[in-house]
Design goal:
The complex is a heterodimer.
Chain A lengths: L17 E2 L2 H10 L5 H4 L1 H6 L12 H13 L11 E10 L8 E14 L2 E11 L5 E11 L4
Antiparallel strand pairs in A: 1-3, 2-5, 3-4, 4-5
Chain B lengths: L13 E9 L1 H11 L9 H6 L9 H8 L1 H6 L7 E8 L11 E12 L3 E10 L2 E2 L1 E9 L2
Antiparallel strand pairs in B: 1-3, 2-6, 3-4, 4-5, 4-6
Chain lengths: ~150, ~140
């Protein structure tokens, strides 16, 4: 089952709002071995000018994941998940994610390339807050290994 | 912790260095926190059945910890991270008993109007595991 070459440019519906919980931020911070008090202690975060604990930069992947699930479960995309390898990843921030944020993500496939039997699918997930303002864009390139 | 400034910052300066010891517990904790329950990150039988040498760390765990020395250098303020990108080039195999040691060296790559680009060298067993690992940071 090859990757659909017409996939580039396709967007998926915005994901349901994801409410960023304080304990989730702390749990994620500990999991990536973060030690910053701004991610762990609401008082330290407030003293630094934030309304609550600040998520580590890669926390955005938790929200992005819901958009990648849309792409991978779309039969018309033709992406065989068992052949997918994560090629690269990028986060471009307007501001950091803070506990209390209600985030919605919209994925757009920006390119599909074929290289030596493999397909490289690049997808951008724009993550916005409840006011519709941009927070971060998470971009992944998925390498889909060709059939042997 | 006070935030650094561009003053006196030169290309090539090492701004942070840190080593991390990963164990299988670290991977299970990351699986739970991130929601990535791919069994290649905690089951040897599944990992070897798909042709891997053993259980691997999540690439996103390696990416996640590799930026932490930079966040600490920024006074703990991840809000100063404007952009962060990596390429996943080699797996980090996490031995069931011995775990894995990953080291991070963060160097100034560029100093510009907005701040700086910090380049990360992330190694496991002496080989780099992330390519083009760059963090754009805001500095006054």
């Amino acid at each position: 089952m090859p990757v659909n070459a017409e996939l580039a440019g396709r967007s998926y519906p915005p994901t349901p709002p994801y409410l960023v919980g304080r304990e989730k931020v702390r749990e994620f911070a500990r999991a990536v071995l973060a030690t910053s008090p701004l991610s762990l202690d609401p008082l330290a975060a407030r003293a630094a000018g934030y309304s609550d604990v600040v998520a580590p930069p890669t926390f955005a992947v938790v929200v992005q994941e819901h958009t990648l699930a849309q792409l991978l479960s779309d039969p018309d995309a033709g992406i065989d998940f068992s052949r997918v390898v994560h090629g690269d990843q990028r986060f471009s921030f307007t501001r950091p994610i803070v506990a209390g944020d209600e985030l919605t993500a919209t994925l757009t496939v920006t390119s599909v390339k074929t290289l030596g039997g493999h397909s490289m699918v690049t997808a951008e997930s724009a993550i916005v807050d409840s006011a519709g303002l941009h927070v971060v864009t998470a971009t992944s390139t998925l390498v889909v290994r060709g059939e042997e | 912790m006070s935030a650094p400034t561009k003053v006196g910052l030169s290309v090539g300066d090492v701004v942070a260095e840190q080593s991390y010891h990963l164990t299988r517990d670290t991977l299970v904790r990351y699986a739970g926190a991130s929601g990535d329950f791919n069994p290649i990150h905690y089951r040897d039988d599944v990992a070897t059945s798909v042709g891997l040498d053993g259980v691997l760390a999540h690439g996103m765990l390696t990416m996640g910890l590799a930026v932490q020395p930079v966040v600490d250098w920024l006074g703990g303020d991840s809000g100063k991270v404007l952009d962060y990108q990596v390429r996943f080039t080699r797996p980090v195999l996490v031995d069931a008993q011995g775990g894995a040691d990953v080291s991070v060296v963060a160097k100034v790559g560029v100093v510009d109007d907005d701040g700086a680009r910090i380049d990360l060298t992330v190694t496991f067993h002496g080989e780099t595991v992330l390519g083009k690992a760059q963090v754009r940071v805001a500095l006054s």
